[in-house]
């Protein structure tokens, strides 16, 4: 499932001022929001940096939770605790154990620095281990959110670890570079298949095609046969390629319409795959 | 309005005047083209490269756009006429099922390319991509336009700036007629596409009359009035339009090129024009300006930061249904969605304006419509002199405060 929720990335000015941050939350009244945190850490962060990030995050959390409890305006909003600690297993475990028993509605597993295309090239195996470890310490009944631009295969792995909520970074990042998602996921076999028939030089990743590639100049079929999105039902690769070449806004619009549609379907299929799994387990 | 087609017409253009204003030269008509029947007077938005910036064809239909423009110079360069022909034309390429009009490419050449040189053969220029010398001839322009497949195509004309005087103006006018004949001779799809000639002659009434007369001697289904969208004074402008519509036949559509400000549209309808095109409403949207009855709102201005009304209370477009001026203020010129939201509103404004004009002509209340329109635009009744003169020339006298 994908969600639009308010993450701290949109509030750069408020990063070190939890009172301003909570003032903003009260103005905006989101359905869900994560507590202010210091999550700008990655695989290269030093121990000292990670220590500071965890300490600030815990302190911000206390402040945010207190404000939230006393806020009439935020009564209907769900508060999510931010969990940080970079790629350090110990630091993460420490903070997670502290937060797990807090009176929040869920948790945002942050601090991997995987926004934008960084997510696509992140050390996914490491992230998976840390997510697995984190979720093991979290209450079963509460929401787990993992922001980041994960590849479809990484995402399926993370779903299987128990993550509930992701964001729309991948379709957006892919559209921004002029590409369309074309991967397929089969709920029955739980496997992925890719579209290699065109062999465009500029196709960056297996799960997409680059509409900027000259290969598509005169291709009169839609981005993906059988796709029911506005772009595929009404337009051809040739037209979208033309829009890319002429740098027309509609090109980006059509790619976003396709990518978001495709991504939503992927989530439908993952949910179907999980339900199938449950049925199989129940039967055996 | 339900349109009933009886026998399928073999003519690529049928023009039926529904009502005439009993005071001015305005009329409202149905212009039946191969892809769509268009209600006139009509404003045609410009979708230069085969797209209206950021807007889906479906959204254009929802806005009641009936005919749009494509630019031959741009489309002839990218994706080029060969692909256009392969795809089956611009309609199929961009999936727009209503009417299309293409210009000849000449105007863009002269305005975009520094080294364009005009000879009897055609327009000589250097390719903007690799500098090689190229030539756009009347034949080549028509060839590209045949591939694009628009319902109405424009002749290649010899365009001069309105501020030009002297023998060059007459030379251009005469050459335009010779090029018209070459265009007609080169046209391969006369049953599906209509060539419109372009009346030239600068600001010289004699030359304009001559140009119009020469064009009426050719077998064409409509006429364009060219060379009047920049440089000249408003007084010269309206007089040239008035003169042109007096000469051009009443039973065929008249298209005034490059005109799109609301005030100009209203006045020129009174002067007998049926079709207009202009980049203004879509371009100004991208700069953050919204069109309203009282003029324009520059949404970048701080005044709108906490204005929670829609752009226009009486507008029924999707932008005004959901968004406030305050929200638009925060995103104009920064988010691409602002471009789309304002483009939709501005197109909606233009379409509503034209519909208002048409309906009032049908009810024979066009002078009242004009007065009300001007009341909103000039609440202090300080109408520009050219507007007073132009309307008075067609028997419309405005209420002025003395």
TrEMBL record, chain A:
One of its GO terms (biological process) is tRNA modification. InterPro entries: Queuine_tRNA-ribosyltrfase, TGT-like_sf, tRNA_ribo_trans-like. SUPFAM superfamilies: tRNA-guanine transglycosylase (SSF51713). Pfam families: TGT (PF01702). Residues 18-278 form the tRNA-guanine(15) transglycosylase-like domain. PANTHER family: QUEUINE TRNA-RIBOSYLTRANSFERASE ACCESSORY SUBUNIT 2. This is tRNA-guanine(15) transglycosylase-like domain-containing protein. It comes from Cloeon dipterum.
